[in-house]
């Protein structure tokens, strides 16, 4: 997969050199390039922002540096069709695990990191010819810029690419993979500071362990995120789940 990120703070994305995503880059599974928006400015001060039309607080990102940067990303795209352009924004659709799975199927993703009050709206309209433009929010709160959102989204998508996570089974049994939260996990020692672990986990009985974990998934989801249960497709929960 090819990923391009445009930002006025390219150093923010240095964390993508670390851990599994960094290794995926080294191994050639992920071709990730970070571009400095200021290198697409044409004035002496490398200006990327200006005052908002209509007045109000804050500054707005100027359209022309964005057009030049995005045109360059588009020109170098290895994708057959329009690559996906993610525009992080608190006013976007909320990022989910399902979205991560969909994005992991793409051959080329681009990310446009806004700052200040955001990017001049006309850039998104203009970019529609070159990209499949998608404003995406990390959640219902406001960050200072898109970089943190990009770190989260690239990690969530990148770990789904084949070969990135050593044991693909660990991608199946985790929170949000089947609409539920993950069950609690434990490791050695079995007795730690006077606290034991659920006896069934020492039983060696795989069917009982699977049922225990399923019950815990359901209990935890009902307790912490009842909204997720409402969104499950009909028939997802068995009678045993409902009784748990
Ligand atoms: N004025 C904008 C609004 O109210 O929708 C918020 C601008 S915010 C201070 C600056 C930038 O941070 C945004 O352009 C976006 O790139 C990023 N950002 C802030 N909150 C975000 C969120 N929840 N999800 C994704 N990106 C976010």
Automatic annotation (TrEMBL):
It comes from Arthrobacter flavus. Homodimer. GO terms for molecular function: tRNA (guanine(37)-N1)-methyltransferase activity. It comes from the Bacteria. The lineage of its organism: Bacteria, Bacillati, Actinomycetota, Actinomycetes, Micrococcales. It is found in: Cytoplasm. Belongs to the RNA methyltransferase TrmD family. S-adenosyl-L-methionine binds at residues 114, 138-143. SUPFAM superfamilies: alpha/beta knot. Residues 1-230 form the tRNA methyltransferase TRMD/TRM10-type domain. The gene is trmD. Its EC number is 2.1.1.228. Its main location: cytoplasm. Keywords: Cytoplasm, Methyltransferase, S-adenosyl-L-methionine, Transferase, tRNA processing. Specifically methylates guanosine-37 in various tRNAs. It catalyses: guanosine(37) in tRNA + S-adenosyl-L-methionine = N(1)-methylguanosine(37) in tRNA + S-adenosyl-L-homocysteine + H(+). One of its GO terms (biological process) is methylation. This is tRNA (guanine-N(1)-)-methyltransferase.
């Amino acid at each position: 997969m090819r990923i391009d990120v445009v930002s006025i703070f390219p150093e923010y994305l240095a964390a993508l050199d670390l851990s599994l995503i960094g290794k995926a880059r080294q191994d050639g599974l992920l071709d990730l390039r970070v571009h400095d928006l200021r290198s697409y400015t044409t004035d002496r001060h490398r200006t990327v922002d200006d005052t908002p039309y209509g007045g109000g607080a804050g500054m707005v990102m100027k359209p022309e540096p964005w057009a030049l940067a995005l045109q360059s990303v588009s020109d170098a795209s290895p994708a057959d069709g329009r690559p996906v352009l993610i525009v992080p924004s608190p006013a976007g659709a909320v990022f989910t695990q399902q979205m991560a799975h969909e994005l992991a199927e793409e051959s080329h993703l681009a990310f446009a990191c806004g700052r200040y009050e955001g990017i001049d709206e006309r850039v998104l309209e203009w970019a529609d010819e070159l990209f499949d433009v998608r404003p995406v929010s990390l959640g219902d709160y406001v960050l200072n810029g898109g970089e943190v959102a990009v770190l989260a989204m690239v990690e969530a998508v990148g770990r789904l690419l084949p070969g990135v996570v050593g044991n693909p089974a660990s991608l199946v049994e985790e929170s949000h993979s089947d609409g539920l939260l993950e069950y609690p996990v434990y490791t050695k020692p079995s007795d730690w500071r006077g606290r034991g672990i659920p006896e069934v986990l020492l039983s060696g009985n795989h069917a009982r362990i699977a049922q225990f974990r399923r019950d815990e998934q359901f209990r935890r989801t009902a307790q912490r995120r009842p909204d997720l249960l409402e969104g499950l497709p009909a028939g997802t929960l068995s009678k045993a789940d409902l009784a748990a």
